[in-house]
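Hi R.,

Here's the chain you asked about this morning:
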Amino acid sequence: MHHFTKMNGAGNDFILLDNRDLSLNLPAATIAHWCDRHRGIGADGVLLLEPAATAGADFRMRYFNSDGGEAEMCGNGARCFARFARHASGCGDALCFETQAGIIRAQIEGEAVSLIMSEPKDMSEPVDLDIGGVNFTIHAVNTGVPHAVIFTDNLERADVAGLGSAIRHHLHFAPKGANVNFVQVLAPGHIAIRTFERGVEAETLACGTGVVASALVAHRTVGSSPPVLVNVRGGDTLRVNFHLSGTVYQNVTLTGPADFVFEGGIDG
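And here is the predicted structure, written out as tokens:
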């Protein structure tokens, strides 16, 4: 029997387990079964709390998408991970942890968490991609995982499932693909997004690294000054702050909720 904690960050939900003794070795099929919303616990992914291997880090965060594949980073998951790590270990409100995308620093602020993200990379000039005979202007940046960003004037009518899947699998983003964010500018410094997530292969209620990617692209494209407020599908508004040094984004922070939902046990 495995003890787990269910959490959500802005509607992006996760199963968290304490693996500091490194006793868990979860097959992809088990993770996919646990994340199944009809036959399992139900979640967008699984997070494991493990001991750090890097000097100066308090813990290691491992993140698995709901298909069982391990991913580099998850912003909403990282906020949940920070509160879970404090709950499990008794550490303080400030902590840092390893991810495949680099060291993440977190500050717990009540039920919210602020993350100092790894520096974004691979921000490219927009490209026009042919999707079903129609050209779409796509922006790209890696904020821990690769993201594509596309602007729309009507977020509610955006074809997140169809167009999102087509862009996610486009050869331009091969071989790993990318998360796809549809962005509508609401006001200066305020945007709304919907995200199609790889590994989940569907729209999720929020995506933390997608929030950051969309905020940075909005700043670069339409001049949204920091902090940028980002409305997500789950109904929350997250805050992205940053400093621009020349053309390099530094001190990128993501602030938003991280909520405990319930605890339980499940057979492996």
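One quick note: The chain has a mean pLDDT of 96.

Cheers,
M.
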